[in-house]
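Worked Example 4.2. Consider the chain below.
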Amino acid sequence: MSTVGTSDKDDKFAKVRSVMCMLNERWLRYFPGDIYLSIDESMVPYFGRHGLKQHIHGKPIRFGYKVWILATRLGYAIQAEPYQGKATGATIAELGTIRVDRVEDAPLRKPQDLKKEPRGTFHQITDTDTNITLVRYMDNSVFTIASTATGVHPEGKAKRWSSSNKKHIVVPQPNCVNWYNMNMGGVDRLDENVSTYRIHIRNKKWYWPMVAYMLNVSMNNAWILYRMTPKGAEEQLDLLGFTRYIVRTYMRTCTSHRSSAGRPSQTVSSRVLPEIRFSGKDHHLETVQKANSLRTVFQSNKETVQDLSSWMPCALCGGFPYFLRK
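Applying the procedure from the previous section yields the following structure tokens:
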């Protein structure tokens, strides 16, 4: 999923393109693997002025940037590409439900004719050159679905309410419709997770909503991967708890440690997160001189150490079991 036929000067998202390419590469690298993928549009809220701001009536987010998302059925985003007009993703709409005017004069039965037929009636054709199967199906309404994986057979069954008979009836259902109903909605699930704890830091720059959106999507992907691990199955943190845990880890890692007077009230293992203690990098000691020479007694392994004038904490996690003699 990339912008087709555009150069850097034509790319209106060039300011955030490097970050987006890096995240697309990372998302694809840690893709958990799923044969059922969905492609749909996702809206990034933006109310300022920009040439690519879209308005989609009837959506929860009516104004903003439109982004094409390739996601798994669980909501893991694999690739993202912002919409930039006709040059973006010219072949995205080949799978799934399509409009009547997008079938390129395919010899399907007209929707007006199928509406006169009983519920469960369908018509199927297959293009031998592209191996794309088109199925027009009469359910509550007439719709058209395209698939490169399956067609009508093996035919399934679906339970529907009949207004004339005043009871539930069983109607035939094509296999492609059954697959679509079971595996669709991955992007919708992603949008639900992102909207729950969306970054609401306001900024006048037009590109800030895109940066915040990519951070939210990355957090959603990390949470889905976490739930697949043994630790995630054991702790079962929700998205809010997992987000707080990640923020705490980065705050302890990327901010300077503020030392307090006296010994710590807790042990190092309880004060420092395991992700920081066992990271295996940047654990080096730094000498901190006291304001005045202290004569402290430190009892360790039944051995008395006196005349301490300095202590050496870890620069990353703040632990200080290392003392120097005067």
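DSSP finds nine helices and 15 strands in the chain. The chain has a mean pLDDT of 77. Compare this with Example 4.1 before moving on.
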